[in-house]
Amino acid sequence: MDDNVVRWDRLPLPRRSVIATGALGLTASAVGAGAVVRAEPARAAGATRKITIYAEALPGGLFGYGLTPGSATVPGPVLEMWEGDTLEITLVNTTTQRLSIHPHGVDYSTDSDGSPLNASYNNPGETRTYVWRSREMFAAAGRRFMPGSAGYWHYHDHAMGTDHGTGGVAKGLYGALIVRRRGDILPEKQFTAVFHDSTINNKLAPNTPMFEANLGQRVEWIAIGHGNLFHTFHLHAHRWADNRTGMLEGPSDPSHVIDNKDLNPGSSFGFQVLAGEGVGPGVWMYHCHVQLHSDTGMSGLFLVRNADGSMPAGAEEAIHRFRGHTHTAGDHAAHGG
To answer: For residue 235, what are the contacts with CB-CB under 8 A and spacing of at least 6?
Structure first.
């Protein structure tokens, strides 16, 4: 057995992530809020997997997607599928608003587009099924290959407020979609950071998410851009290869190694790192590197605990400093902006 392959059945279960299981006869709705349904990929591609998602109104005028009634979150659950498989999503609209679910990076017919253009949406109280298909790369002319679906993508509403779902996206109807290639290494933890206008997951610092992992854990980040502003995503003390997985495939892999990447409306990317690798435990910042944006609240914390889960020296003090700092536009002016 290859010691470098992470076994799916020996991993802690990441929160709010799901690979629906068709062959095992399980669905996300059967296991409760925050649960993970992750299956080993079939030996041959082509499995059809089914889940149910509930669109719900949330406090503060927000909306979210959830795997069970009453479990909606912002962002919604991480949806995963294996390249070559099909995902059938039954979307239950429990709200009083027109809404839908629209994916990036996968194949679908017009009736699963999730857009009013194709009359593909849920009216208030309506249930509708959307079918997303994925495919593996295939040979093309000239000794070239057409790309498959594997990658870090996302999904979002495309019908609330306007025919483009502007109201739904602004109020939290979005989430991560991962299409994995067979043989991919699976993470122990997953974090989704959505940069939307001036917020991260519809929150401003110091109330932005604090993501946590133990030293050495394999962590997967999914970064998504929405709204109307240009952003960049920067993670302190960690770096990744700018390719599909964030990992180099060998010593001669030409992928650039980066720690900062553009994150514009509609774009997404992901990568895996080993928490604290080379730098040790501590509190590390992630933020938009557009200075005005980070000054006004587009920053959060990545807490890398000691390997045994205990707090590293200085971590509590750093967290208190972050939470006690007032992020304002005045900060930018005071520093020469």
So the answer is: 221, 259, 273, 284, 286, 302
**CATH code (residue 30):** 2.60.40.420
Q: Of 4-18, 31-45, 228-242, which range is least confident? A: 4-18
CA dihedral 53, 120, 203, 223 (to 10 degrees): 80
Amino acid identity for residue 87 in this structure: L
Q: Where are the alpha helices (DSSP H) in the chain?
A: 166-170, 291-295, 315-324, 329-334
DSSP per position, 175-216: EEEEEEPTTPPPPSEEEEEEEETTEETTB-TTSS-EEEEETT
Instruction: Give residue-wise pLDDT tens across range 135-164.
Output: 988 888 888 888 889 999 999 999 999 999
Query: Are the beta carbons of 49 and 81 closer than 8 angstroms?
Result: yes
Q: What is the tally of structural domains in the chain?
A: 2
Instruction: For residues 157 and 285, state if they share a domain.
Output: no
Residues 244-273: b if buried by 16+ CB within 10 A, e if exposed: bbbeeeeeeeeeeeeeebebebebbbbbbb
Range of the domain at 239: 189-334
- Looking at residue 193, its pLDDT comes to 98
Q: b/e for 150-186, b at 16 or more Cβ within 10 A? A: bbbbbbbbbbbbeebbbbbbbbbbbbbbbbbbeebeb
Phi first, then psi: what are they for 127, rounded to 5°? Answer: -110, 135
Q: Does residue 53 belong to any structural domain of this protein?
A: yes
Strand partners, 221: 191, 271
Q: Which of 20, 117, 114 is CA-nearest to residue 67?
A: 20
Contacts of residue 37, Cβ cutoff 8 Å, sequence gap at least 6: 18, 19, 20, 21, 26, 27, 28, 31, 51
Instruction: Identify whether residues 142 and 210 lie together within a single domain.
Output: no
Query: Could you tell me the pTM of the whole model?
Result: 0.85
Per residue in 191-207, pLDDT (tens digit) is 999 999 999 999 999 99
3-state secondary structure of 59: helix
